Amino acid sequence: MVNSPAMGSAESHPYSPTDPPIPQRPARQLKPQVDSALAAPRLQRSIALLLSHLVVAVVALVAIGGATRVMEAGLACPDWPLCYGTLLPGRQMNLQVFLEWFHRLDAFVVGVALLVTAVLSLLRRAELPSWFPAAAVLSLVLVATQAGLGALTVTQLLAAPLVTAHLGAALLLGALLSAAQVALAGASMANSRPPLWWRAVVLLAFLGVFGQCLLGGAMASQWAADRCLELGEACRWLAVHRSFATPAALLLAAATLPPLVIPGWSGLVRGLALTALLLVLLQITLGVATLRLQLAVPLVTVAHQIVAALLVSVLAAAAAADLKPQPNPVHA
Ligand code: HEM
Prior knowledge:
Elements: H1 31-70, H2 95-123, H3 132-155, H4 160-184, H5 196-221, H6 224-231, H7 235-261, H8 267-292, H9 298-320
The protein binds protoporphyrin IX containing FE.
């Protein structure tokens, strides 16, 4: 019997260079490792890109919602979730039905995208920063709440507190997605990190502007400004909204001026600060113009709502900008 090399006997045939090469265990493949190392940033980048589109979609949602209110189209689709019992109400379609129907369609697309993001972030959480799955699930909860509030605004015939809560939830969703986008996009590559006191001031400015938005929403959903201008009724809302604009704008100036006047801040923070400062000036101009025009130009009234949504999102992004990078479990 001939001993085979596999039997490992000392008497087995010694290996000669003319023999065919002994099969060896293949060298450990490096490629999969390299791939998985790259996969995390790639996944992060893809999700950050998706989030930037979703921020635009949420601002559009707020804009269409504002146009829906201004055009008195809030009940143009009398049922929910369908519109006249169908997915596409072709026969009833006019500008008002289109606004309400398109508002729901945009909300549906945002909801599906957030569901996919949340599921993906849970399944591949090892490749993402540890805070991200919680943020993704929270945004899913917010969009579900938003849809519920949207349904209630229709079934409760546009009750003012529901309309205001609906606007508030949309603004919070935009802010959360915007902050998550900036934190995920790797903006944290900057060498200089903003001091903690500055983040606290940005957060205060965010709360001030958000509170001002809720006041504006509460006023608008009761048609208080119209009633004040036409009938001299409910003018308290307008007075409060106008007075609160000053502290909100001052808080915002306190948050945005340091990066603009003190040297050494990252380009991202300076850019966000400048954008927020310009937006608040535009917002005040639009508010004054809305009144001067006696609320008669829908485009100006809707622009006031769009700029409010942008302002909240930009402030949220500033609060999350240049955070300390978190080591990713895949790389650790
Ligand atoms: C930081 C500054 C401000 C913010 C963030 C803000 C935000 C808002 C928001 C979110 C709304 C609700 C819009 C809607 O639901 O259609 C609103 C309504 C309104 N705002 Fe402001 N606002 C600001 C400053 C001002 C100023 C300075 C004025 C005027 C002097 C003004 C006048 C109005 C008016 C008249 C409405 C009611 C529009 C309507 O009933 O259709 N706002 N504001």
